[in-house]
Amino acid sequence: MKNLVIYIHGKGGNADEALHYKSLFPDCDVIGFDYKSNTPWDAKKEFSDYFDSVANGYDEVYLIANSIGAFFSMNALAEKPIKKAFFISPMVNLEKLICDMMMWAGISEKTLREKKEIATDFGENLSWEYLCYVRENPIEWRIPTQILYGSKDNLTTLETMQEFANKAGATLTVMEGGEHWFHTEEQMEFLDRWITGIK
Hints:
Shape: globular
Low-confidence stretches: none
Order of helices and strands: EEHEHEHHEEHEHEH
Helix content: 40-55%
Number of helices: 7
């Protein structure tokens, strides 16, 4: 059996993070995807083309994806032959997140529709096109999936994550005290145990 693990980083991350997972999947080739897309419509083509270019010749392909990388993956790779997915703090409801950010910024839907794009004080640009896309392209994900979620995730509520996991038939693991970005020694040890225990 020749198996492949594709690692997809979140915002601000990079493909080199894949190196962390090599020891967790000693019998697999592990590669990181250094994607360029910032929108789901661009990612749909880029992710699909990349998957097709690297997965050829492997018996099984596994996916590890973080945050927005998990959302882009679900939007682009739902029909691909992926054996199992491991999602870390995935963004699973972009419509709700964008609406939450609009509320935080005090921006109405009418204003965003008129202005098309608005920069916020917390560093995110809100886009009417993005909001319309996620509304018109709901995620349909049926690939066997394990989700790791931190109880202190400030972008997705536990209720939203549970709702998605139930709909997708995914297994949800919650780290008490974990954040959206798993990066401390304690968080990474928890992540490693999580993957090792379920793969």
